[in-house]
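Forwarding these from the shared drive since the link keeps breaking.
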Amino acid sequence: MAAQSLKKYRRITVKIGSALLVDRTAGLKRDWLASLADDISVLAENGAEILVVSSGAIALGRTILGLGKRALKLEESQAAAAVGQIALAGAWSDALGKGGLKSGQILLTLGDTEERRRYLNARATISTLLKMKAVPVINENDTVATSEIRYGDNDRLAARVATMMGADLLVLLSDIDGLYTAPPARDQHARFVAVVDRITPDIEAMAGAAASELSRGGMRTKLDAGKIATAAGTAMIITSGTRLSPLLAIERGERATFFRPSANPIKGYKTWIAGQLEPAGRLTVDAGAIGALLSGKSLLPAGVKLVSGNFSRGDTVAILSPEGREIARGLVAYDAADAVRIAGLKTAEIETVLGYEARSAMIHRDDLVVSHSSDQVRASDQVRASDQVRASDQVGAGDQVQAGDQVVGDEVNSGG
């Protein structure tokens, strides 16, 4: 691709893979880290705010502890992370400090960005660091996260951080220089893709697996990250980080894949809903419900054909087409048990079944985001905040949820 100037972006999130930062035998790659820190200093001098999502705590810790390449037990991984986090934070502080930059370490778990109040708290802390001209260095808190409550890869964590902080650009530095039509290591005819306008099912089909044992991600998780980022209006670049000064290499026009941000990005409160990684449940709906959702209306129980998952009122659930493709996400207004009881019912029948007057919508449109990556959704069909509220779509006053920043049944701070 032609040189993509990073200087036009005011806030950039940079994700570094473990294999780039840690050598399997020698440990931390200090020369490479120093070159990246120099790149960050240059961008900061030009007025950009930089957030770093750094993998490598477990990989560095296992090197320090001499654990070799063998598979680690959960408690061993967490112990390695505890050792690695200290070393990694110190290395970042030293490297950035040589360029006159301060840094601060932020350790996140999946719950810190999935649960609304903790999300807002994390955002406030990172915002304060940026205001103080410090570079936030962010990693998953591997010392406490288990398989059930973890991201599992820092690509999606980086996308979540980028959208949470309103970054203009997400750069994924990896051991591959961009997206190919097929994994190039397995297909000699794979073609490089310079620009992706939208992540469609055809684009997703190009993804492969992780390239090394130090990498927990792969192209599939990078595309997952791209869907989160671009839907919120954040551009994304995937490029190789194996060379020195990898960010300035983008400026020089070295190979990289550029993902365009959505022309109709999700904003504010809905960014949090759309970026949820692990829905608590799933609702399969009929064609009529899909049409209503694409026109900006709420999801009514009548259109729900199947309920799965053990969710509570206010949880995020995925909405699926009859073919199983996710078309939207939203905050559900019913517990799973009640959702099962009223699925397929008309509004007038709900009170008789539940025994109390209840909300007419299973998910109110103010708490619902249509997927930008769905091949069933055209750009002209995207749900916009400005055209969602029409008198004909209103539900009863008792059913309404504040469009600003309220979760169903749970008031939270304003500002999304």
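-- next protein --
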Amino acid sequence: MAEKFERHRQPWNAAELQKLHTLAKKGMGLKAIAKALTRTEESVKDRAKVDGLTIAKLR
């Protein structure tokens, strides 16, 4: 069963946005960023798209 996220539909705060930008620039993968921010991969992907960030596609 998938992990349950208690932060459903919570707005992004400034610290989370800063961390997202930092991790994306370091070249971390989507799964790692989502885990570091305790957000879903879909949420991270959507926010990165809004901010114009590219997330590394790790294999």
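The radius of gyration is 11 Å. The mean pLDDT is 88.

- D.
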